[in-house]
Specification:
homotrimer, 300 residues, alpha+beta, 5-stranded antiparallel β-sheet
């Protein structure tokens, strides 16, 4: 009997501490960090539970850029453990009839977001298990019903925090949505006629590297080994912006300062860089749906 | 007897874990995030207690801009639970005889700050319960007495962390200050002659929306309903900068891309925006004491 | 006996909570915060242990600027408690044969970093106790072996998190390295012929103050007291960029707005500022190895 009491006390203490079980709540948005918006969202989350582990991917998504939100989410999410709750708010349609959802991925991650295309990449990489529409009658910050333009604070941060802390279950988010999530269309990587082609989804903004979406599998069909040269053409629409050859290497340090190179980036997609310089700036290359890249193994 | 021991052990374990009780320490400053200043402050706080939950509102308050510090603090603070300790450091008078204080608001929040006007908005919205002057003889980082220019690290972060962690009580901050806190003067919103008038305290910097301080109550005296048109005049001093009419709507999506609109922002103040664009940029509108706005319901 | 069991249960509960013992993991890098790189690193760290206290110094080190990484690390690290694990990633040589290390300082701090000069300042101020080379066979994120360009995520964040959480001991990082760490050379402060001379390691970027490396001890040899005037010459290489006199004061508020001043900064190094203005911008002063400053007590 004493042992039972002891064990019960121990388990109770543990469950209150609950330190081994806590889930992360991870924000990203296009709000920037110059004002109080992100601080208000985190206050809402902390008020839900003082035990939440709260983090950020970035709040510097270019305003209204849903495509980049989708890309950045996918760049970071796979590195977080299952159970992590992401709250992504790039929401040009706030207050319109766009759907507010929480998705559970096949990998066990959760994403709270307007269903406006933000889930495009995640749907392909982690896969969508279930989609629930947020029932705002139950999942909305108290006394916020007069505010129509800050769902990030009033609905998404609040719901994400309640889900991450266990205050609500995934089922309590709201009813199942049986259709697909909204997907942005984009050029998939392809291999044909001995060439690998794809798009430029984003730049590696800090260093000026050009990240294509030509993945390792597609790239490998070129049959290029480390040290081989790759012939590269970059187009903006129909216009040829860059044509040149770069060595395919593993690291920037494999070429001299100021020299171009091709490599597989941290997401294992083919990318173009300049050692200690900026490829994007040197050749005026940008990213987006109208940009494309064609690669061919150089056999000279 | 055994039960008493058990309960005592359990409570002790709880009090050490103390997870359910922990308070947040929330920083804002004009330090920027490009150097080691904020990192040094957080180190001081973490050294006080490894259990603190440490957050930020923003560190990108424009340098020396006390007005914006006051506004941003007020934008975020009400969303944090009572007991939260804010440390706000925009301190152009560091080292002068400006008072260093901790205020307790009527809502139970604490703010550690130089008393230089940073409390202007909080004093009106949350209300000031008590003001205590920081006794630096007791509340100053050890071995920091030769540094005169970084009170943020040596006094404010240190005192805020000790208060949030319970190492000191509010009474141990220092003696009560019986006068008012320093208030910056600004144009209050008014309704007269059928018009609502007010100032432009800040821009919604990330999106270029113009946030007035015409609150919901003052605005409602215009008798405008959703869908009505509002005649807007914006002045820089005496000079008319913008005159036009905008629909009063709930959400940006209620108008076409590129169209102007009026709405109640996330603080329920009347604001002006352009769907998917920047009102401030389009009409060269900025914020500050010399800017004013006059609204009239358009009856055409 | 019962008491022993009780105490054991209590200690076990405590050890699981382990709240009083947790160590901070503190990141800095040149990655910027506009993409998902920092978010991916933190995900790796959180997956190692959900109990880690994770912080940042800055991620806005100018790209590839090892010197500034070294300076910023030294600006913040001494304010964190012993046991703190810093992960610093400014790594232009990623993938080359530069050594990946964890150093233990004499003060009991740990730094995980490429050994490329990032430890220059820390080695002088906190001192190096031991250097261990990271054994990547054991200390590398699973399934990351095909990625060659993001050691920050795959090796440094992972190893730092495991060290901070106690998953590995310092000894388990890898073998001892018996040589020195890589040091960048720079002009040390000197006093000769009645003049104090030194370099300009960094600017105080947010406010435009010019921070020299003339420390309090060297400066004091001028025999200047508060209120005395200091004759200042600033050189870019051989070229005289600024010559003038400033009062030596403790605080910015000691001079009128717009006036120059000399003071000891938060690291107790002699610095130059303009009250409510920017010294660096006014006189086109920058920082780096080619900049130097000479001070003489003005005796007029």
């Amino acid at each position: 009997m004493r042992k039972i009491i002891l064990i019960a006390a121990f388990l109770l203490a543990l469950s209150v501490c609950a330190v081994g079980q806590r889930h992360a709540l991870v924000f990203q948005s296009d709000f920037g960090l110059r004002d109080g918006a992100v601080g208000a969202m985190k206050g809402v989350a902390f008020a839900v539970s003082a035990e939440l582990a709260i983090f950020d991917i970035t709040h510097d998504i270019p305003p209204y850029n849903i495509w980049e939100a989708s890309y950045r989410l996918n760049q970071a999410a796979p590195y977080w453990p299952p159970g992590t709750v992401f709250v992504s708010i790039v929401d040009p349609g706030v207050g319109s009839d766009r759907r507010s959802v929480v998705v559970k991925t096949r990998s066990g991650h959760f994403v709270v977001t307007p269903d406006n295309g933000t889930l495009t990449h995640i749907a392909e990489t982690l896969g969508i298990d279930q989609v629930r529409e947020i029932d705002e009658a139950r999942n909305r910050l108290q006394n916020s019903s007069q505010s129509y333009t800050f769902h990030g604070r009033d609905v998404y941060a609040y719901t994400g925090a309640r889900l991450a802390s266990g205050a609500i279950s995934f089922e309590q988010v709201g009813p199942l949505h049986h259709g697909d999530v909204v997907q942005l269309s984009y050029q998939k990587p392809v291999f044909r006629n001995g060439e690998a082609a794809g798009g430029i989804p984003v730049l590696d903004v800090q260093y000026g590297n050009v990240w294509t979406n030509i993945d390792k599998t597609t790239f490998s069909k070129l049959g290029a080994s480390t040290g081989d040269w790759i012939n590269v053409r970059i187009f903006n629409g129909k216009q040829l912006v860059y044509e040149g050859r770069v060595p395919y290497v593993q690291t920037f340090a494999a070429v001299d300062d100021g020299k171009e190179l091709g490599y597989l980036n941290s997401l294992l997609n083919f990318s173009l860089g300049v050692n200690m310089g900026s490829f994007a700036e040197r050749y005026k290359v940008s990213s987006g749906a109208e940009w494309s890249v064609v690669l061919r193994k150089d056999v000279r």
